[in-house]
């Protein structure tokens, strides 16, 4: 019933409970040792509370779940030309598991790749962007990115290595620069953590 969407009814014996709520839209997920692994990271919300229930007590409580992911965007300041075939993002240290009891996301040892193959309809587009959602790496862990565009012969057009990618909860971090033109000079690549219906704004320059 849509009228009951977001409402949980339950009967519990008296005691102390830790309640964990997780909301996401990934098509598939798996749970192992209290950690969820998702087919893809989607906009995800989470809240953990402790609830004390007495004998015969009826409790009605509103719980506001909170966004726990950040957004990474790679924004092109050049247009998509006919010679570019694909754009690829490879992330090392990408958190792909979320422990529902601790609220901590952990990274796989593997590299996670996101690839965009350009279609004829993409040619000539300006302000093209490539974005993804990510959990926040656990304290002391880092995430790095390698991005590149290649032509139809598989030859490299342009690439960047970002040694430290620092997503933040409820914020979009935008990397802005030329993504598709063949590199002819030391072009700059700039990092703009920005807000578009997300949290606050931080600005940090990043050299090429």
Mean pLDDT: 85
Q: Kindly state the percentage of residues in helix.
A: under 10%
Major sheet description:
4 strands, antiparallel
N-to-C terminal Cα separation, in Å? 53 Å
Kindly provide the radius of gyration, computed on alpha-carbon positions and rounded to a whole number of angstroms.
21 Å
Strand content: over 45%
Total number of helices: 0
Oligomer: single chain
The class by helix and strand makeup works out as mainly beta
Overall shape: elongated
Q: What strand order characterises the main sheet?
A: 2-3-8-9
Order of helices and strands: EEEEEEEEEEEEEEE
Using DSSP, what is the number of strands? 15
In terms of per-residue confidence, which ranges show pLDDT below 50 for 5 or more consecutive residues?
201-207
Summarize the structure.
It is built from no helices and 15 strands. The protein is mainly β.
Would you write up a description of this structure?
With 208 residues, this protein is an all-beta fold. 0% of the residues lie in helices and 46% in strands. It contains no helices and 15 strands. The chain has strands at residues 15-23, 29-32, 35-38, 45-53, 66-67, 69-76, 84-92, 95-99, 105-107, 112-117, 129-135, 143-151, 156-165, 172-177, 190-194. Strands 2-3-8-9 form a 4-stranded antiparallel sheet, with no helix packed on it. It has a 4-stranded mixed sheet with strand order 11-6-14-15, with no helix packed on it. It is elongated and about 75 Å long. Mean pLDDT is 85; it is low at 201-207.
């Amino acid at each position: 019933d849509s009228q009951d969407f977001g409402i949980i009814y339950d009967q519990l014996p008296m005691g102390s409970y830790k309640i964990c709520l997780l909301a996401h839209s990934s098509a598939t997920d798996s749970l192992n040792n209290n950690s969820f692994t998702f087919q893809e990271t989607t906009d995800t919300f989470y809240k953990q509370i402790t609830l004390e229930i007495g004998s015969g007590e009826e409790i009605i409580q509103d719980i506001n779940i909170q966004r726990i992911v950040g957004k990474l965007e790679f924004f092109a300041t050049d247009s998509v030309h006919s010679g570019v075939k694909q754009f690829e993002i490879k992330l090392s240290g990408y958190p792909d598991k979320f422990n529902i009891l601790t609220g901590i996301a952990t990274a796989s040892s593997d590299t996670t790749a996101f690839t965009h193959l350009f279609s004829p309809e993409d040619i000539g587009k300006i302000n093209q962007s490539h974005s993804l959602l990510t959990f926040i790496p656990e304290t002391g862990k880092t995430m790095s990115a390698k991005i590149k565009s290649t032509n139809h012969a598989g030859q490299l057009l342009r690439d960047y290595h970002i040694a430290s990618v620092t997503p933040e909860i409820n914020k979009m971090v935008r990397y802005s620069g030329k993504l598709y033109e063949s590199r002819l000079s030391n072009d700059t690549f700039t990092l703009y953590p920005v807000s578009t219906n997300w949290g606050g704004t931080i600005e940090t320059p990043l050299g090429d």
